[in-house]
Amino acid sequence: MRKDHAAVIIGADPAVQRVLGWSAQELTGRRAIDLVHPDDRQRAIAAWMDLLATPHGEARRIRLRHLHRDGRTPSRPPRWTWAACRCIRRRASAWPGPARAASAPTR
């Protein structure tokens, strides 16, 4: 997933759909935090803030539970999928610049 400085998803590659079930079109424009399990959100926010403070090209790893598309129905509880994300700060542009980081979920 590619995100802007506010962690809004601006793009996703096919790996995201294989792991989480969401297409790039469904994810684009959503807040990334909305896909993170409530118990993992504080860690996700702290990791994102840490990433934004790192130099260009630096990477961080974090393992979080993400909402899987197949599990979100009115008749049953959400399905959560563990995904390890390698987050890389891609650009050192002026705040609030465009795409700031990318993450690739893997099981």
UniProtKB/TrEMBL annotation:
Q: Which InterPro entries match?
A: PAS, PAS-like_dom_sf, PAS_fold_3
**Where does the PAS domain lie?**
1-42
Q: Sorted alphabetically, which SUPFAM superfamilies does this protein's record hold?
A: PYP-like sensor domain (PAS domain)
Q: Supply the CDD domains for this chain.
A: PAS
Protein name as annotated: PAS domain-containing protein
- Highest taxon listed in the record's lineage: Bacteria
